[in-house]
Amino acid sequence: MATTREEPLVFDVEGMTCASCALRIERVLGKQEGVESAVVSLAGKEARVTAAPGVDLTVLTDAAAKIGYTLTPVVAGEERESLADRYDEETRYQGRMALGAALFTIPAFLITMFWPMDHGSRWPELAVWALTTPVEFVFGWQFHRNAAIRLRGLTANMDTLVSMGTLAAYGWSVYAFFAHEPVFFETAAVIISFLLLGRFFEARSKGRASAAITRLLELGAREARVLRDGVEVTVPADALVPGDRMVIRPGDKVPTDGKIVEGGSSFDESMLTGESAPVGKTVGDEVFGATINQFGLVVVEATKVGRETALAQIVRLVEDAQATKAPIQHLADRVAGVFVPAVLLIAAVTLGAWLATSAALPDAVRAAVAVLIIAC
User: Fold this and answer.
1) DSSP designation for 281
2) How wide is the angle at C-alpha 222 spanned by C-alphas 221 and 228, nearest 5°?
3) Structure confidence at residue 287 (pLDDT)
4) Helix, strand, coil shares, percent, the chain, to 5
5) Per-residue DSSP letters for 47-91?
6) Which end is more exposed in the chain, N or C (fewer Cβ atoms within 10 Å of the end residue's Cβ)?
7) Hey, is 359 helix, strand or coil?
8) pTM score of the predicted model
9) What is the pLDDT of residues 119-135, one digit of tens each?
10) β-bridge partners, 239
11) In whole angstroms, what is the distance from residue 27 CA to residue 35 CA?
């Protein structure tokens, strides 16, 4: 499918976990022929692309798929899953993962902290190993899966650090168990559990913020009483067209923006202005959708409907604010773009430096893993 005119193209984006993901998608989309600019919102899970006429959307989605992300074009007029619903689903998923990981991690941590790990009895280490394994490879699988996807695209993100750090801790502990060295299985389990808990809280907070937009849209009236040949007819509010004459009684919400043609009243416009005092209106004055008629009966001629109403424009401004970036955020994205490779390099240098100073291999591995984990 190709674009027919120069306009912002909107895509739902799946697979992002950090700011470097959003920056990487922006770079890839920006390099495609005909694309003038691309802005990707991590919080909004959305990409907005300004492209010249004739740009093939399949080319853009395929380019993102090659680096491990899924882009779904948003078609005007088609029903779209709300961002709040998407975050609700993610919140439930991350909550299950965090709870499951905690049920295994807490016993492993307690055994490690309070049970002597001597070589006379191996069962405490075996117990911790058994408890850590499902945390690493079941509840923490999302980190390894995302890291593998990025690796296929020769890229890295924060999941790469988590995967490498916890797998290094787990793998070294397996070796250390058979070599009769100190193990630290619980380190991998604790790190994954805390990161899953963090993702749960992040998804929940973003979901609540997105739900505010949904609640804003729900302020509007769902039905309107329209005069048709002198008779009042109830119609859905989204079926109104400019020129329709609406009868608005005391206590009714105004279905859409319009101009008073008969009567006069006071209107509660606090949802738009924050002002609690009603505003008096008479013939010729403009009224706004979702405001509340306080006293008199009025007839209002619709002037703006759908996306042209004041309420819809407020929602659009909030969505645009989420999808655009301040200059300081662009700077942060550039830093994020080099952060992961820099951390991997520092971890490698740390491992080499410890070994070069004749430090024991367990100490060197522990130091390198610490660099990866702290960076997460």
Assistant:
1) E
2) 95
3) 94
4) 55, 20, 25
5) EEEEE-TT-BHHHHHHHHHHTT-EEEEPPTTS----HHHHHHHHH
6) N
7) coil
8) 0.74
9) 567 888 999 999 999 99
10) none
11) 11
